[in-house]
Amino acid sequence: MLHNVQSLAATVVGQVVLRSKNLDQALEAVRKRHGELTPPQWAALQDLSYTALRWLGRLQAILDLLLERPLDDGRVRCLLLVALGQLEYGKAPPYAVVDHAVRAATGFGLPWAKGLVNAVLRNFLRRRHTLLSRLDADLTSRFAYPNWWIAKLQAQYPEQWASILAAGNGHPPMTLRVNGRKTTRQAYLARLGENGLDAQPLGESGIMLARPLPVDRLPGFSDGLVSVQDLGAQYAAPLLDVQDGMRVLDACSAPGGKTTHLLELADMDLLALDSDPVRLGRVSDNLRRLGLSATLRQGNAARPEEWWDGRPFDRILADVPCSASGIVRRHPDIKWLRRETDIAGFTLQQAKILHALWSTLAKGGKLLYVTCSVFQEENRRQIEAFLTATPDARCLPLAGLKEGQLLPCDVHDGFYYALMQKT
Q: Which of 65-69, 331-335, 400-404 has the lowest mean pLDDT?
């Protein structure tokens, strides 16, 4: 029943917009309460929720133009945002979207809601082109990002800011990483073809599927032949230059994509550290599925005195907490939950982690600093400040990466890399 899914999507959007709840958490709460949802209904719920949040700034501007007076009821407002997202970006027939939204509004128990929803949506269909032409003059409604986010990118990327914003509003590709310990990329591509799945090779060991699909439909996934990992994230393990016999630290390891990639490349003594015990469990699950082993430990990367045994590491992967501004197409709620003031907090935390981990690195060892951000405060400027304050650190060149920054595009998300060696 589509109107039920539409109503549930409005609930999810409301949790994010009105209560500042994480989108994944909001969806998981609905999943737990509504175990009766079929796979197609669940897919529809996710699509409606992601679309509404991806284009929230634009949809809110449309709705404000359509309303004669402010709408205080959050449930009705979020339902209208979901329905407007369907009408503007979805494929369902407009009459069906309006009909299901009116039915959903009836369930709110508000006598006026049904008529308002019907009038607003039909008014949008009548005035769509006129309304949309009025929105493009305002950058927030045009690009569907907060003003501060747009201004920051304009200042830091005067030539690429619009393409970065556009990439963040797209649908992310589904990219796989082949486990070289169990198969080859050529063999796995052939296996995909045998199962009627189109794909192309990317990077050193990546494969991009023509169309995303559930992991349980990937041949050999449960046997550890492949992992789902963005191509940009697949740069990390090869850049760290790990060799057999090394002692290696993955300092912020959850959920384990980069941890397992390192172990696929060499035999090493690897410590996977993370502060979140639940997320650390996901590292364990991924290791088990891929047939790999590492030492797992809960701990704060910025406080090595709590978990470090005093033996220096030859290599350290520091995939630090960040704004996640480079992966907003996978997490569209980030655009609306982040505040400009949050960036300073992230940079302070990153600096603490960097300086703490440097003390655990062996002389001649290498540390790879990683973020999934495009903001320079967390990336280039962070590393410049660290190098100035750390005389025994030197930055090494990265083949194929201009200043270490990967900007989001059709084939990968946004990441930053800096490889440093202790002299």
A: 400-404
Phi-psi region of 342 (alpha: psi -120 to 50; beta: other; left: phi over 0): alpha
Question: Are residues 61 and 183 located together in one domain of the fold?
Answer: no
Decide: 57 and 141 in contact? Cβ < 8 Å. yes
Please state whether beta strands 247-250 and 313-319 pair in parallel, antiparallel, or not at all (unpaired): parallel
Tokens encoding 29: 């709460």
pLDDT of 4 reads 86
296 φ/ψ angles, rounded to the nearest 5 degrees: -105, 135
Per this entry, what is the length of the chain?
Answer: 423
Model-level pTM? 0.94
**pLDDT for res 399:** 81
Q: Between β-strands 175-178 and 206-209, what pairing exists: parallel, antiparallel or unpaired?
A: antiparallel
Nearest-5° Cα angle at 307, 302 to 313: 80
Cα–Cα distance measured from residue 4 to residue 164, given in angstroms and rounded to the nearest whole number? 35
Domain extent for 203 = 175-228
What integer is the mean pLDDT of 368-390?
Answer: 98
Catalytic residue among 78, 252, 322, 372: 372
Whether 50 maps to a domain, the answer reads yes
By the 10 Å C-beta count (0-12 exposed, 13-18 middle, 19+ buried), 183 is classed as middle
Quote the mean pLDDT of the chain: 96
CB contact at 8 A, 398 and 370: no
Kind and range of the H or E run holding 406: strand 405-406
Contact 254, 282 (CB under 8 A): yes
DSSP code, position 422: E
**Residue 2: its pLDDT value, please?**
58
Q: Answer yes or no: do 190 and 310 share one domain.
A: no
372 is an active site residue: yes
CA distance 409 to 162: 12
d(CA 330, CA 229): 12
